[in-house]
Amino acid sequence: MNLIDNQKLLHVIERAKCILIQPKSEWDKIEHEPATIPDLLKNYVALLAAIPSICGLIGSILFGNSYMGHIFRPSFMGALSSALTGYVMSFVSVVVLSYVIDFLAPTFQGTRNIIQAFKLATYSMTAGWVVGLFSIIPAHGFIAGLAGLYSLYVFYIGLPKLMKTPADQSVGYTLVIILASGLLLAITQIAIHSYTRQEMSVPNTNLVENVLLPSPKIMSDLSNGANSNIDKAVQPVSGEVLKSFLPQTLDGGMERSEVSTMSGGQIANASSAQAVYRQEHVQIKLELSDLAGIPQLVNIMSAFSAESSEETADAYKKRGKVDGRMVDEEFNNKTNQGSYSILVANRYMVRTEGTGVDIDKLKKIALALVAPLEDLAKH
């Protein structure tokens, strides 16, 4: 038994070393290897994902954690709960990323293959897990950032090999996957955090299984949405059209000082416009995005939407639906910094963020655009 375990461990170490040092040739090997989803999760993810969880647990106990600008030293049980949640999130990240990869493959002329998608998601995260060794040391964000960039590079190399995507589609495919997965994981992490806090008081041997896979109904909805929306996608309005909705002056006389736009292209069939407003010590950024050209992303966001809230003495975060629209809000009363986002007509994302301003003003700016954008969506 020990010999088998040692052989598995040596294989994991060798695979991790090769995917980090020579990713191109290693992806060639991985492409043709037989694999199953349980084996990938049990024999690779379970081992490597333990590195940042264990090191993070030790680091939080020795040095404390930073949360919304504050340093606090958690109790042992609090640190253990966070470590377990992080460990579960490693599995969730692989699963979510895999389904997004497979789900979007036809959109970028790739071939759907869930096993290949799981291989791609699993092995491309190697750098982040290995660098998790530094989680024991405070302020390791720079190293983690470099690992993230390298993981992205490894992912980009493996994508056309495993999902059979044409070279000229790989950049757009990669960036849309990052966007979709990031939104999904942000929502899922909050849901799992709430779930684990409720379940920590009761032994639950099926914790990972219970939260690991999206429900069959959600995956069915996503698949049906993909099939219908790929052919019926609405073209987004141009960045210049969105720019026309950015006011020249905000209440209080704040003048628009910077403005920029983006429209479609190979990266993603979407458009955006943003402006910055400044007055003395106050700064507000207003951004509009039209996601109509990426209906799969909107479907995913809706399918995995979850209400959540977190609060400290000085700050709060909350996400949910208000009047049927997805809303994301956060604010720090001590620094007067915050943001407010709302999804309008299931396609336009309005986001305001500011410094030196209260949350009510950020809300007012965003909500003033709801009616005009809903009218635009009807035409």
Give a written overview of the molecule:
The chain is an alpha+beta fold. It folds into two domains: 2-213, no CATH class; 239-377, PknH-like extracellular domain (Protein Transport Mog1p, Chain A, 3-Layer(aba) Sandwich). Helix content is 55%, strand content 19%. The protein has helices at 2-21, 23-32, 37-48, 50-63, 76-104, 114-124, 126-130, 141-163, 170-199, 207-212, 216-232, 239-243, 295-303, 359-367, 370-377, and strands spanning 65-67, 70-72, 249-250, 254-263, 271-279, 282-290, 308-311, 315-322, 325-332, 337-344, 348-355. The strands form two sheets. Strands 3-4-5-6-11-10-9-8-7 form a nine-stranded antiparallel sheet. The chain has a two-stranded antiparallel sheet with strand order 1-2. The N and C termini lie far apart (67 Å).
Query: What is the total tally of β strands?
Result: 11
First-residue to last-residue Cα separation: 67 Å
> How many independent structural domains?
2
Helix/strand-derived category reads: alpha+beta
Low-confidence stretches: 195-232
The SSE order reads HHHHEEHHHHHHHHEEEEHEEEEEHH
The DSSP helix count reads 15
Strand content: 15-25%
General shape:
globular
Return Rg in Å: 22 Å
Concise overview:
The radius of gyration is 22 Å and the shape is globular. 34% of the residues are buried. Helices cover 55% and strands 19% of the residues.
